[in-house]
Write a structure and sequence with these properties.
alpha+beta; Immunoglobulin-like; 3 helices
Length: 171
């Protein structure tokens, strides 16, 4: 099989393939259309929905002797097909997709919140709620590190979480 680029209508380049048996050029439009359709369908990522206990955890205040931690990922088209894992103290909290959030209660004290290569120290206090906005950007090679966390205020965090769907947590 031989591939060639030909200048087509209005300067658009067309990819043609020659099959050795017949040497008849075959336009690659159906192949390219199929690949785009497959990529589009693959971008429809789904995560396991939160259990009723997790939903209840997200709606109320933290337990008196615990702190509450939210990690939310706003809905964006860029890198929406990527799922990123979030860890607390090296333990998997869960995975986020575009437009989802995770929530858990943690013991007061020092914790490390990690997504990709980004790590944030958190000195949690009992009765408080902490919010992290997870940002994802396109990456050419290692997509697992193309994410970052930013601690945000409670008002900004509440608004961000309200626009997201709750994903299941591993805690």
């Amino acid at each position: 099989m031989q591939a060639r680029f030909l200048k087509g209508y209005r300067g658009v380049f067309l990819l043609t393939l020659s099959i050795p048996r017949t040497n008849a050029p075959v336009k690659a439009f159906p192949v390219v259309a199929f690949l785009f359709a497959a990529a589009f369908l693959a971008s429809c990522v789904s995560l396991q929905e939160a259990s009723p206990r997790e939903v209840q955890l997200a709606s109320g205040p933290p337990s008196p002797a615990k702190a509450k931690l939210f990690v939310y990922r706003p809905g964006r088209f860029v890198s929406s097909a990527l799922v990123h894992r979030v860890y607390v103290d090296g333990r998997l909290l869960g995975s986020t997709a575009s437009g989802t959030f995770l929530v858990t209660e943690i013991e007061p004290g020092h914790h490390m919140v990690t997504a990709g290569a980004d790590q944030h120290e958190l000195n949690a206090q009992a009765g408080r709620t902490y919010y992290y906005n997870q940002t994802v950007w396109p990456a050419m090679y290692d997509t697992s590190t193309a994410t970052g966390l930013e601690e945000v205020s409670e008002s900004v965090g509440r608004e961000g979480v309200s626009k997201c769907k709750q994903a299941s947590s591993n805690f």
